[in-house]
Specification:
The chain has 313 residues and is of the alpha/beta class. It has helices spanning 19-31, 50-54, 71-81, 101-111, 127-144, 160-163, 176-182, 206-225, 229-257, 266-298, and strands at 6-12, 37-43, 61-65, 86-89, 115-119, 156-159, 187-191, 307-312. It is built from ten helices and eight strands. Helix 5 runs parallel beside helix 8 and helix 9 (229-257) packs antiparallel against helix 10.
């Protein structure tokens, strides 16, 4: 069966009251673009009646996850089920504007890009959320040289090849663009509209910000060194070994020229510690290299999330 032109992927968690209007807006936006599209809603363990509202919609596909896994996992489930040549993701809270679909697609065509990310330049969130966003942006720019201004914006357009290369969870939706850039896909960005939420409460809070920071460390290590963990630990081991040599030379100087016995020389203990650290770090690199290879060999047997049912209407 021929693939559709577009798949619209919408993660939903406790968005009762926002869903019906958003669905109407998506259809209105797509009517001016193509009639070959599907809309995939992922119910991420909602407990406020969102699933019931989703079931009132027509011509949709609903993925009902058996519990709340988080936005990244919900997106991952939608991406894996999408059949469109181009996949557009949009948040289920109504703050992203479906009218911006055309803008994303135009940017993609003009630049021959694989991914176009939305940039909510004029954020409508509370000041505390905006402050967290600015801090997170600065941290990401420092550690991973983030390629876009708004890594938290769900409104994005992807070519199928890009989106099918992803396997995300946790708070990793914030690093999707970075991951795809590291994979060699061409990235673009366009300013999009940001709207006030009409129903419900924002899911972004301090806890999510902390989890996002931990995922940032994961991204820095796993995606930079997953194919070469020995390099990372090898660098640390080499630094420790060089410091151990310097400390050892100072220890020899103290013993030879100043007559300080080893059991009274602090440099001797520092040298011993640094030498052992170098050996341990190098050993860690070898062990982690083996563990990653074992994990990659078994990963296709693991299931990170479970789908209760898929409803096609």
């Amino acid at each position: 069966m021929k693939n559709l032109d577009y798949s619209i992927v919408v993660p939903v968690y406790n968005e009762k009251g926002n869903i019906t209007k958003l669905d109407q807006e998506i259809r209105a936006a797509m009517s001016a673009i193509s009639d070959s599209f599907e809309i995939i809603y992922i119910n991420d363990g909602s407990n406020d009646g969102s699933l019931e509202e989703l079931k009132t919609l027509t011509n949709v596909k609903i993925i009902d996850l058996n519990r709340n896994y988080g936005q990244a996992t919900a997106l991952d489930a939608g991406f894996k089920m999408a059949t469109g040549e181009i996949v557009i993701s949009i948040d289920g809270d109504g703050q992203n504007d479906p009218a911006d679909f055309a803008k994303l697609l135009q940017k993609m065509r003009e630049g021959n890009l694989d991914v176009v990310a939305g940039w909510r330049k004029d954020r409508k969130d509370k000041k505390g959320i905006c402050l967290l966003t600015l801090i997170g942006k600065a941290v990401r720019r420092f550690f991973i040289k983030d390629a876009v201004n708004d890594s938290g914006c769900t409104l994005r357009a992807y070519k199928k090849e890009a989106v099918k290369s992803l396997d995300i969870g946790g708070e990793m939706h914030r690093y999707v663009v970075t991951l795809l850039r590291w994979k060699g896909f061409k990235i673009g960005e366009v300013i999009v509209n940001d709207r006030l939420r009409e129903h419900g409460k924002s899911k972004y809070n301090y806890t999510k910000a902390i989890r996002g920071l931990l995922d940032l460390l994961y991204v820095c290590f796993i995606y930079k060194f997953s194919q070469r963990p020995l390099h990372f630990f090898g660098y640390m081991s080499l630094i420790s070994f060089v410091l151990a040599i310097a400390s050892g030379l100072w220890t020899i100087y103290d013993k030879t020229f100043l007559g300080i016995s080893l059991n009274r020389n602090g440099w001797f203990y520092i040298t011993t510690f640094l030498t052992l650290s170098a050996i341990v770090l190098f050993s860690f690199g070898i062990v982690i290299d083996l563990l990653i290879k074992i994990h990659l060999g078994l990963s296709h047997y693991e299931k990170r999330y479970y789908i209760r049912e898929v409803i096609e209407k």
